[in-house]
Design brief:
The protein has 482 residues and is mostly helical. It is built from 20 helices and no strands. It has one domain: Growth Hormone, Chain: A (Up-down Bundle). 81% of the residues lie in helices and 0% in strands.
């Protein structure tokens, strides 16, 4: 490309940026409806379903966590879907069409998953314990396949959605947008917990019959995914057309030599800072989410809570996150910076895990619930800081690819965390007769991991990333990046 062409392109981009309106507060909350839906679904899969599989159906925690985590292990496709949304518009838009298709498909897969769970549970209950037979192997494999499909279709929608957040925001309001959008996800977690408690009211009796259990949860897994699909439509309708700055920021738009996935991956690996931040996200996310597969069973076994009561545990830490997410984006990040905010959040989370262990040893349910509120509070602080840093480490030309990579890191980490939590719990049960000690090992490992994440965070340099990424993108544009 000639120098004159570049300068003309820059002038056109600058003019278009001046014309485009800035995302307003109402639109930020509307975008958050999509994340709210994901929060509701998280309660269904890693809240209600895992509790039922482990505590009610007698399926081992390792098998339960492993099958549910398959949805997260297909996350390498996030980079591909992100790159597709960069390069190939769908229904005339780079992001919105992918969001809608993915949302429609994940609303169809979850009801199938729960029906397979009943079949697997029936086999386990018929034999009295879990053992590998043709039937258990077949149903477990089918459940894993459906959860892989669920993870795939979630990637189709979520990665372009996160790229849309980059497209519609500026550096000075991105922290606010992230704070609001992730606040809405927390609202979803709280709403999911409350909705589950209401719709599962018939299960308040801890000795409810198998028929009541099955019908109540089957209906929950039909009604809620449809509601989430509707939320995805409302969240994104018209937003990209009105606010997206993708076409003015990217020098790749409307070019015949649009960036390929291979070239995008080379840009992704051009800076060592990408690898450092990738590692930080892995360690932080694993340490944060190992409890996802064990929190509700912990409430059931150690504190003797019913299914509706344990589904409400998500609301406790959800309330804490809700209190901190927006406040972090509007006040803490602008005042203290993204790195210091994230570091403080991580260290405070480590303390919360210690308090959760103490609550189990004392059998104090109120301490447990109060600590979950604090856990949510500090998780909101750490998450907002980390996500703001993530979007700073994103190049406009390959936003979908970069966001896909960050999504890959988080999803792989959550998958690893979910499986690790289940495996460590099963190992702890073999070593200790006390449930509080077995679960305590999981929480102790999380506390150590949070401290390690802070160490990696201290080595991240945003400016170094920007310099290296800019050079790599320029090389791709000139066709020099071999």
């Amino acid at each position: 490309m000639e120098t004159s062409d570049l300068s003309n392109s820059q002038r056109a981009s600058s003019a278009q940026d001046k014309v485009l309106p800035r995302v307003n507060l109402l639109t930020m909350f509307r975008l958050g409806l999509f994340q709210m839906g994901l929060g509701i679904l998280a309660v269904l899969t890693l809240g209600v379903l895992n509790r039922v599989m482990i505590a009610e159906l007698g399926i081992p925690a390792t098998i339960t966590a492993g099958t549910l985590a398959i949805a997260l292990f297909v996350s390498p496709t996030r980079i591909w879907f992100g790159q597709m949304s960069d390069a190939k518009p769908l229904f005339g838009f780079h992001r919105t069409g992918y969001v809608w298709i993915g949302a429609a498909l994940f609303a169809l897969t979850l009801p199938l998953a729960v029906q397979v769970v009943w079949q697997l549970g029936s086999v386990v209950q018929a034999t009295g314990s879990f053992s590998w037979t043709t039937q258990t192997l077949g149903w477990t494999a089918l459940l894993a396949l459906i959860m892989a499909l669920y993870g795939l279709v979630t990637s189709i929608s979520s990665t372009p959605f996160f790229a849309l957040l980059v497209d519609v925001s500026e550096e000075d309001n991105r922290g606010q947008l992230i704070g609001i959008v992730w606040s809405m996800m927390t609202v979803g977690i709280a709403v999911g917990g409350i909705t589950s408690k209401v719709l599962l009211k018939r299960l308040e009796n801890i000795d409810a019959s198998a028929e009541v259990l099955r019908s109540s949860i089957s209906w929950l897994f039909i009604i809620v995914p449809v509601l989430v699909f509707v939320l995805a439509l409302i969240a994104t309708l018209g937003v990209e057309k009105k606010y997206s700055r993708y076409s003015s920021r990217s020098t790749l738009v409307n070019r015949e030599d649009k960036i390929t996935l291979g070239k995008a991956l080379k840009i992704l690996t051009a800076s060592r800072q990408t690898g450092l931040f990738f590692t930080f996200l892995l360690v932080m996310t694993i340490s944060l989410f190992m409890q996802e597969a064990v929190l509700e069973p912990y409430g059931g076994e150690v504190f003797r809570m019913s299914i509706p009561e344990t589904s409400l545990l998500n609301s406790f830490w959800g309330i804490g996150m809700l209190m901190s997410l927006s406040a972090t984006g509007f006040f803490l990040v602008p005042r203290f910076g993204k790195r210091k905010t994230t570091k403080f959040g991580c260290l405070a989370i480590a303390v919360c895990f210690i308090l959760i262990i103490l609550s189990g040893f004392t059998g104090n349910a109120r301490l447990f619930q109060a600590t979950l509120v604090l856990f949510g509070l500090f998780t909101g602080i750490a998450t907002t800081g980390a996500l703001s840093l993530m979007l700073d480490l994103t190049a406009a030309e390959t936003a979908g690819t970069f966001v896909g990579a960050w999504g890959l890191s988080q999803a792989m980490a959550r998958g690893t965390a979910t499986v690790t939590g289940g495996v460590v719990l099963d190992l702890g049960r073999q070593v200790f007769t006390s449930p509080a000690l077995a679960y305590g090992i999981v929480f102790a490992l999380q506390a150590v991991g949070m401290v390690l994440a802070v160490w990696f965070l201290g080595r991240v340099n945003v400016q170094e990333f920007r310099d290296n990424a800019s050079a790599a993108i320029a090389a791709v544009m000139e066709g020099d990046l071999d």
